[in-house]
Structure formats: structure tokens, C-alpha cells
Design a protein that fits this description.
- It is found in: Cytoplasm.
- Its main location: cytoplasm.
- Its cofactor is Fe(2+).
- Pfam families: TsaD.
- By secondary structure, the protein is of the alpha/beta class.
- It is 43% helix and 18% strand.
- It is built from 11 helices and 10 strands.
- It has a 5-stranded mixed sheet with strand order 3-2-1-4-5, with helices on both faces. Strands 8-7-6-9-10 form a 5-stranded mixed sheet, sandwiched between helices.
- It is globular.
- Bound molecules: adenosine-5'-triphosphate (ATP), magnesium ion and fe (iii) ion.
- The site of magnesium ion (MG) has 4 residues, from loops.
Length: 341
């Protein structure tokens, strides 16, 4: 089947054409970094307006590059949440209009399911169930991925998401926006052992994450003025990696049925994060799967792929389905301590 995927939940506008055989015929992406940089973070109203302007031309470009037309498409998939509601609505309404005009089915995709299934787009041999560390700008969760639409959440963050911690640290250290790649670049020039930073919840029985204390410690280290931004960035990154690895090690014990350890989401683009999780998987005798970097951060190929998986399972949606600012991936989300969804 041929799927058109649309993504507009944050500050990336994207459109992709992808087949259920994992053929990415085209993927187009427009970031909005320059528009948001002066504010040091994503401004929802600016993002929504930018999506309105860019999405149409991007869809046309995606079709042009693929050599396909709307008539060739079997289903139209778009992010329906969670995210900045104005942006989500732009993509979802566009998908509904295309679905209506072409009489093709709509697939409303949870953005987190896009991240969660992206490793299966990258690696055709990745089977369910797998243990997923989902680390992105708004989320930090450990999930047992049992199948399409079947997610068991083992852990979440009780305060900040991992990507949020990178972004805030970058802001505190004046490294620029978006923060993750900036911190990684600075960290490469620093000593990860130089600044003593906390490892919140390390070794605790509960598998959850916490990054707010780490951020405060970064602020204190900066104000002490005794270390370079590179050293603080390197020490911060090491602390995050230690926490992610420790919590994931704990979750592996609860997920004996997992066939692989998998990481996805924007922070999965970080080489230190990838390297340490790969080592953990080797230690546990499990295979390790991480999508290529372009598939870690927001993109429409992963939304198209989640759409392909859902379409194959017969999971299409009515045209009156609503956009959702919040949309936990697992059905039992409310039962897990802490907000973080
Ligand atoms: P969510 O998916 O939770 O709704 P989002 O879509 O905004 O949030 P993603 O696009 O998946 O998040 O990821 C963006 C986040 O990833 C940002 O916080 C960014 O700083 C972080 N990030 C990107 N590249 C890197 C990197 N190389 N190292 C660390 N963090 C990174
Ligand atoms: Mg972004
Ligand atoms: Fe995302």
C-alpha cells in the first residue's frame, strides 16, 4: 500500500510518501528553528502559522519527487496528537480534506506511536515485543511494545523529559536552540568527569526518570563560574546517559519477553545515548535497534509508516476524529504515578 504521511505537532512541518514495503519514496521536512530561535523555544502561535504556510507546498513537493499522485495513495495518515494543538489541527484538517476529496481512508496517528514504530521502518527484522526507550522533547518513557496499538508503559518522567533537559541546559549555558545537538557538540570538547552532577533516582526501585534536579545543578555549576560550558555540557550529558542506562537496565528485568532493546525519539540521535544503550543491550544479550538520525527527530516518514502499520491492521478513522493536545500511548497511563504524558 502507498501512504501519505503528514507531521505538524511541534516545530517541524513534514510530508512523506511511503509504502508498506518500507520504501520511502519521498520525505520533505521544513524546520522552523530560525522563527523560534529569538524566543529560545517553540512559540505555539508562530508554529501553527508556519505549518499553514508550508504544509501545502511540502505535500506537492513530496508528490512531485515520488512521481505519484493523490490517486495512487491508499491511505492518508496524519499526526492527530499529542502536541501543540494549533499545529496538530493544521496537519489533521489537511489530511481530512485530502481524504474527503479523494475518498481514501484517514489514519489518525499518535505522534508517539510514530516514534515507537520508527525502528520497525528502519529494521524490517525487528519483531514485537521489544523494550523501547522513547526519549524526545516532550517524553521520556520505557514501553514494552507488544504490537501495533499495544503499548505497556513501564516508566515515565516525574518532571522534565530528556530532550527538555537538553534544551534547558543549552539555554542555561548559552549554547543556542535547538538544544540537544548544541549540547552534544559542546560536550565533545569537554570532560564528562569534570563537574559533579546528581543522577536523580539512580538505583531506585521504581523505574521512573527525573531531570529537574539535574537542571538546577547545571545552573549552580554555571553560576559558580569554575568550569567551561563544554565541561558542564559533557558532565550533564554523562549524567543523563547514566540515568537513561540505569533505568533501562532495571526495565529489562521486567521485560524478559523483549526480543530487542530499541531507542527512538529526538534524543536517540545522541551518540553517547546510542552507544551506552548498545553496550547495555550487548550486556543483556539482546539485539539493539536505533533508527538513523533523520528518523529519530520529528519527520513524516515515521507517521506514514505508523499509518501503514495501522492501515494493514484495518485501523482507519472517521473524518470527525478530533485533534488531541494530550494523548497517552498506553491505555493504562492514568494508573502510572506522575504526569509526564
Ligand atoms: P515529542 O515527540 O515528545 O512530542 P518532539 O516531537 O518535540 O517531542 P522530537 O522531535 O522527537 O521531540 O525530539 C526533539 C528533542 O530531541 C529536542 O528536545 C532536542 O533537543 C532533542 N535532540 C535532538 N537531537 C539531539 C541530540 N543529538 N542529543 C540530544 N538531544 C537531542
Ligand atoms: Mg523540533
Ligand atoms: Fe517527536
Amino acid at each position: 500500500a502507498l501512504i501519505l504521511g503528514l507531521e505538524s505537532s511541534c516545530d517541524e512541518t513534514a510530508a512523506a510518501l511511503i509504502t508498506s514495503d518500507r520504501d520511502v519514496l519521498s520525505h520533505k521536512l521544513a524546520g522552523q528553528e530560525a522563527a523560534h530561535a529569538p524566543y529560545g523555544g517553540v512559540v505555539p502561535e508562530i508554529a501553527a502559522r508556519a505549518h499553514v504556510e508550508i504544509l501545502g507546498p511540502l505535500i506537492e513537493a513530496a508528490f512531485a519527487e515520488s512521481g505519484k499522485t493523490l490517486a495512487d495513495v491508499d491511505a492518508i495518515a496524519a499526526t492527530a496528537g499529542p502536541g501543540l494543538i494549533g499545529g496538530v489541527m493544521v496537519g489533521l484538517v489537511t489530511a481530512k480534506a485530502l481524504a474527503l476529496a479523494s475518498a481514501k481512508p484517514l489514519v489518525a496517528v499518535n505522534h508517539l506511536e510514530g516514534h515507537a514504530l520508527s525502528p520497525r521502518l528502519a529494521d524490517a527484522s525487528l519483531e514485537f515485543p521489544y523494550l523501547l526507550l522513547l526519549v524526545s522533547g516532550g517524553h521520556c518513557q520505557l514501553l514494552l511494545v507488544e504490537g501495533v496499538g499495544r503499548y505497556r508503559r513501564l516508566a515515565t518522567t516525574i518532571d522534565d523529559a530528556a530532550g527538555e533537559a537538553f534544551d534547558k541546559t543549552a539555554k542555561l549555558l548559552g549554547l543556542g536552540f535547538p538544544g540537544g545537538p548544541a549540547v552534544e557538540r559542546a560536550a565533545a570538547k569537554g570532560d564528562p568527569q569534570s563537574v559533579k552532577l546528581p543522577r536523580p533516582l539512580l538505583g531506585s526501585r521504581e523505574p521512573h526518570f527525573s531531570f529537574a534536579g539535574l537542571k538546577s545543578a547545571v545552573l549552580r555549576a554555571r553560576d559558580a563560574g569554575t568550569h567551561s560550558a563544554q565541561d558542564i555540557a559533557a558532565s550533564f550529558q554523562q549524567a543523563v546517559v547514566d540515568c537513561l542506562t540505569d533505568r533501562t537496565r532495571g526495565a529489562l528485568e521486567q521485560a524478559a519477553e523483549a526480543t530487542a532493546l530499541v531507542v527512538a525519539g529526538g534524543v536517540a540521535a545522541n551518540q553517547a545515548v546510542r552507544g551506552n544503550l548498545e553496550a547495555l543491550a550487548a550486556e543483556a544479550g539482546l539485539r539493539f535497534v536505533a533508527p538513523p538520525l533523520w528518523l529519530c527527530t520529528d519527520n513524516a516518514a515515521m507517521i506514514g509508516w505508523a499509518g501503514a502499520e495501522r492501515y494493514a491492521a484495518g485501523l482507519t478513522d472517521p473524518l470527525d476524529i478530533a485533534a488531541r493536545a494530550r494523548w497517552p500511548l498506553d491505555a493504562n497511563a492514568e494508573k502510572v504515578r506522575g504526569a509526564g504524558v
